[in-house]
Write a structure and sequence with these properties.
By secondary structure, the chain is mainly alpha-helical. Helices cover 43% and strands 9% of the residues. It has a three-stranded parallel beta sheet, with helices on both faces. Strand 2, helix 2 and strand 3 form a beta-alpha-beta unit. The relative contact order is 0.25.
């Protein structure tokens, strides 16, 4: 799953990733460009709690542009698993 937006669209991506992670197939989650702002969401906010739950509680691997590679490298990595959705 690739999330490229912050705000409501990015939050929809996090909600979808959380739903998938609670099921039988945890997602690969890639944050690109403006979506990196989701990593700085305030603790207790919905976005902050989604990121915390995904990473700390459910062990979902989260790749962030710049921290884990440039955009091209992350998009190549994202193409490996079956890419379900882009937000």
């Amino acid at each position: 799953m690739v999330v490229r937006h912050d705000g409501e669209i990015g939050l929809q991506g996090l909600r979808t990733a959380l739903s998938l992670a609670l099921g039988d197939r945890p997602p690969a989650l890639f944050l690109l460009g403006p979506a990196l702002a989701l990593l700085d969401a305030a603790p207790g906010s919905e976005a902050g709690e989604c990121v915390r739950t995904l990473t700390a509680e459910l062990g979902v691997r989260l790749w962030a542009e710049g921290r884990d590679g440039d955009r091209a490298a992350l998009l190549r990595e994202a193409a490996g698993p079956s890419l379900a959705q882009v937000f």
